[in-house]
Amino acid sequence: MNIRHIFIILLAFLALLLLACDLTLLTGGAMKPTVTITAPPNGMRVDTGAQVAVQATATDARGIAWIELWVDGAIAGNQVLPAPQTSYTAVLPWRATTPGAHIVQVRAYNTGGAASDPAVISIEVAPVVAQATQLPPPPPSPTRSLAPPSPVPPTPPTSPSLRTPTPTAFGGPSPLPTILVQVIRPVTPFPPADLPFHIDCSAIDPSKKAACDTYIANTRDLAYPLLRELTGTSLSSCYDAVYYKILLDNPRQGAVGIADRNKISYSQAASVD
Known about the structure:
Helix content: 10-25%
Shape: elongated
């Protein structure tokens, strides 16, 4: 079974989850943790390349198990606690590499897998502006004439981006100022998934990990957003996470998902060749 076949199977699986959504809502969901971002403040402005320390405090009566950092809809870091704690403050680093406004979210998960509502702030990353350095004039060439040099009228200054190279003492042109080129990332056709997908590929050959990583990316960034656009229904309204495991042997016939309060578990034999 190739990646395309797995993709089709996953679409059928997600459709099954949507059908089970109403039943899960009737049974009620687990209590969610709470999380707040204490630093930096909302709307903070930083320079491109700066390291930002996102500090968040999460609480839950059952115990916090791990905390995730999301930037612009993608996971940018996480912190797993060595032992569950009812209250925990995490510091999650993020490097601001792209100029513009960025949406930063923090989510906390308790020992039962329940996810908190995201704590959200916005951070503005300022672009780097290249500055031209005015070079000193080249030294005068030696002359054999004994007559005093004729006065030379000063040359009016020109814009650094339009001036011609000035010859140096060795006859070569002087360097021009560096011009910053900003690369604009393409816009994805659909918003990314708004709940985490936990996909376990540990049962397959380790040499297939790269293909499995591609499958995980397609599941999270293509299959789920596409199904959400087609159906108009979001899984996050019913579940906090999706757990999907690839096995060597299929334990059941067909795509079978098990709804367990606030999460969905699914196992399927598949090959990522």
